Task: structure prediction
Amino acid sequence: MTSATGDRPTPATDAAEAQWWRDAVVYQIYVRSFADSDGDGIGDLPGITSRLDAIADLGVDAVWLTPFYVSPQNDGGYDVADYRDVDPLFGTLADAERLIERAHELDLRVIVDIVPNHTSVAHRWFVEAAATPPGDPAWDRYHVQPGTGPDGGQPPNDWVSVFGGPAWSPIVSRDGTPTGYWYLHLFDDSQPDLNWSHPDVAAEMAATLRFWFDRGVDGFRIDVAHGLVKADGYPSLASVGQVPEEGAVRLFEDVQPAPCWDQPEVHEIFRSWRQIADDYPEPRVFCGEVWVTTPARQAAYVRPDELHTVFNFDFLKVPWHAAGIREIVDGSLYANGLVGAPTTWVLSNHDVTRHASRFSDRPELALLRARAMTTFMLGLPGPAYLYQGEELGLPEVFNLPPESRADPIFFRTSGEQLGRDGCRVPLPWIADHPSYGFGPGAESWLPQPASWARFARDTSSREPGDRLDPESVPTLYRRLLAVRRSHPALGMGNFEPAAGTLAWVEVGDADVLCFDRMGPPNVRVVLNCGRREVTVPGDWRLIVASGGRRRQVRATEEGLSVPPDCAVWLEAAPNGELPT
Ligand code: NOJ
Result:
């Protein structure tokens, strides 16, 4: 490999740096709930900056910040009123710059969110449109259609919102009389969908990308990336065979094909975005939120001239079942491999039930399995995303009082669906502090359960007077991330796409998954989803075990015995040969 300036060899490290995103571990910060600096009970940018050391210490490579832009906060900031300024709730532009600077000092890259599918009703474009009658060009930046039925009193078609209820809301004139026209919102009615065939829309988003890239951000997570283009003529769901069930309240994104998801023209948008990113000398990257139905359709978004990565949501949804997990791993590695892209693993985020509560109804077993799944995930080839609090073992909070709930899903489904607040409860930092150290006072925008002292980060601190629990979830995460860094076989291993493969090993038990990653040193990863111990034959050194003391790995005459609901990382015998 040569440098751009001549034939001087480029150091391998530079080349690997340019491909950092291929095996990075990214820590998702849900800004409202991470750390509050001013005591208003809402997390903010200075709070994050002050606590970034703890995240760097964990051993991750990057942070992803959910939207902190000017917003009425109807959907946790995913309703943006100004893409290029910071909401006063979270701080100032200078605070954002300071955060980026501090992250870089700590060797953390910074990914921020962009929300290109919709604006807030408080965005200047919607405010301008709302002051005019439908038909005025100001409305052309949104999707506006005449209603059906007498006087256009019914929505234009049968599309329903992801958050529940119709996906169209009536446009009313200033005196409140209906105009017979409706605007589209695939999410809340305060989040009107943008019309990407209007040139202003593409220009606004391109300017937003450059604005934050120029301030040093290393990448964007793209909200609803698969939804930006709607089929011409707004065909009904019924016309594409998706007759919404009687009483269906939500258009789940896995109801596809649908005229509002995964339209072919969306790829042109991302090709143009890739050019913007590639204009920068240092690598700038994208990770798309792409809910589509097959690995092949996902892989289309990560062709070499489009996005760098997309989340593998099939993995995030997988139940505790060995064959199902393997099918998803194989399918996604194969499809992404065909286009030379890594597969991006994730088990939790701010939209789903925390995985510490997902794999069983019994909390202890669920946590044990979550530890195992994380261990398995971080052994897979490719980048991985962690969601704040999972490294503390935080469970989902199912019993929030209704009056504290903020998620529009709860309100739009009249409480029938609890929504996502249960995974967004502010983090506990200090066990014996009123808000568990989330902020200086006792306030936190969602109430923290009384039982959360035991999850507080300081209970696993490495400070003097160390109360470090070798069995704790933070200790497991630190260990996994440290080993992943010291063992090039894990993650991607190097930046060559070919190195991103794994070799399955059959252990004669359908409930057990076992694969090898090639080093040196070689590493074997085992996940036991069954009810019995399984023996991995050979001469192994145990490098990480997810089960701790409660479920110990035993050395037997034949090899190592891995308990149920556990995962391990094993290092091959000193000669580097993998036992067969
Ligand atoms: C996906 C985001 O992750 C979610 O939190 C948000 O509500 C929707 N997109 C709408 O922006």
Notes: The pocket of 1-deoxynojirimycin is lined by residues 75, 78, 115, 187, 223-224, 289, 350-351 (CB under 6 Å). Residues 322-338 form the longest helix (17 residues). Confidence is low (pLDDT under 50) at residues 1-9. The CA atoms of residues 552 and 563 lie 7 Å apart.
